[in-house]
């Protein structure tokens, strides 16, 4: 394995995670007004997005700089396929192992978190150092 | 019952196809742009990362709905 070069891009992963968890708690609390099961399912739906996405961010920024361009792109593809596979596995695990589950709360929260995650990464971008 | 599995297969298959094409173009352009302007590599990586997040939003939701169809509706 090639040696990793000095970190050039500051990835605000902790900040993203904090904001995502705060948003997830708010959505879960709103769903728990409907029923405790809906709140619990909404929280699980949010976690299904957050965990694979944190893995994706960690993997994408393993290699940086023009010298590692090929590794960068290869890692992007690997990270994306792993993320989708993890999401599918988590959904399958929840639908088979969790009984009962409030499906609308789970899927709605997941969808909201996916869209909010994209917007969040656009609003709070990783900072590049020169 | 079989129609549910076919529907789930179409959702996942189409999502995977679209994501594959999108990521192929994205990765290719990143390599091309990095080769042309190596000093911009980090900024290009950030832009690629943001685009990747937007690109896989719909297929991810599709995966969730497909898993629901397979394990809850058909199960």
Automatic annotation (TrEMBL), chain B:
- The name this protein carries in UniProt is ATP synthase subunit c
Q: Which Pfam families match?
A: ATP-synt_C (PF00137)
Q: What does this protein do?
A: F(1)F(0) ATP synthase produces ATP from ADP in the presence of a proton or sodium gradient. F-type ATPases consist of two structural domains, F(1) containing the extramembraneous catalytic core and F(0) containing the membrane proton channel, linked together by a central stalk and a peripheral stalk. During catalysis, ATP synthesis in the catalytic domain of F(1) is coupled via a rotary mechanism of the central stalk subunits to proton translocation.
Write the record's keywords in alphabetical order, separated by commas: ATP synthesis, Cell membrane, CF(0), Hydrogen ion transport, Ion transport, Lipid-binding, Membrane, Transmembrane, Transmembrane helix, Transport
Q: Which GO terms describe its molecular function?
A: lipid binding; proton-transporting ATP synthase activity, rotational mechanism
Q: What is its main location?
A: membrane
Q: Where in the cell is it found?
A: Cell membrane
Which residue range or ranges hold the V-ATPase proteolipid subunit C-like domain?
6-69
What is the taxonomic lineage of the source species? Bacteria, Pseudomonadati, Pseudomonadota, Gammaproteobacteria, Pseudomonadales
Membrane-topology descriptor: Multi-pass membrane protein
Annotated transmembrane regions: 6-28, 49-74
| Alphabetized Gene3D superfamilies for the sequence | F1F0 ATP synthase subunit C
At the top level, the lineage of the source is Bacteria
Q: Which organism is it from?
A: Marinobacter psychrophilus
| UniProt GO cellular component terms | plasma membrane; proton-transporting ATP synthase complex; proton-transporting two-sector ATPase complex, proton-transporting domain
**Quick check: keyword Transport in the entry?**
yes
Keyword Cell membrane found: yes
Q: Which family does it belong to?
A: Belongs to the ATPase C chain family.
Q: Which residues does the UniProt site feature Reversibly protonated during proton transport point to?
A: 56
């Amino acid at each position: 394995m090639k040696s990793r070069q000095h970190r050039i891009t500051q990835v605000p992963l902790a900040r993203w995670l904090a904001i995502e968890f705060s948003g997830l708690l708010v959505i879960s609390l709103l769903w728990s007004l409907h029923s405790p099961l809906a709140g619990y399912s909404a929280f699980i739906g949010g976690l299904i997005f957050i965990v694979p996405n944190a893995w994706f961010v960690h993997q994408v920024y393993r290699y940086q700089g023009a010298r590692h361009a090929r590794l960068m792109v290869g890692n992007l593809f690997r990270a994306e396929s792993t993320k989708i596979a993890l999401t599918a596995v988590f959904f399958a695990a929840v639908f088979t192992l969790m009984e009962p589950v409030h499906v609308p709360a789970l899927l709605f929260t997941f969808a909201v978190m996916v869209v909010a995650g994209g917007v969040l990464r656009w609003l709070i971008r990783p900072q590049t150092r020169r | 019952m079989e129609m549910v599995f076919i529907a789930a297969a179409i959702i996942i298959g189409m999502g995977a196809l679209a994501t594959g094409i999108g990521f192929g173009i994205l990765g290719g352009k990143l390599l091309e742009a990095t080769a042309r302007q190596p000093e911009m590599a980090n900024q290009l990586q950030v832009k690629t990362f943001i685009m990747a997040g937007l690109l896989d939003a719909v297929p991810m939701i599709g995966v969730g709905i497909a898993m629901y169809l397979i394990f809850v509706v058909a199960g």
